Amino acid sequence: MKKEKKEEAFPWKKVVVVAVGVLFVAMMIISAMGMSWLQSFRTVRVNDSVTIDFTLWDAGGGPVLTSDTALYQAALSRGYLSFLAEPLTVRAGYIGSPAYTGVQAENYYVSQSGEAIRFGILGQELDELDAAVLGMKAGDKKTVNFLFSDPLLITLKENEYTAMGGNFTRAGIGDLVPIGISENPIIREDDFQTTPQNSVLRIAVIVNKTADALEVQHRYPSADIMVRTLQ
Question: Is the pTM for the entire model greater than 0.85?
Answer without folding.
Answer: no
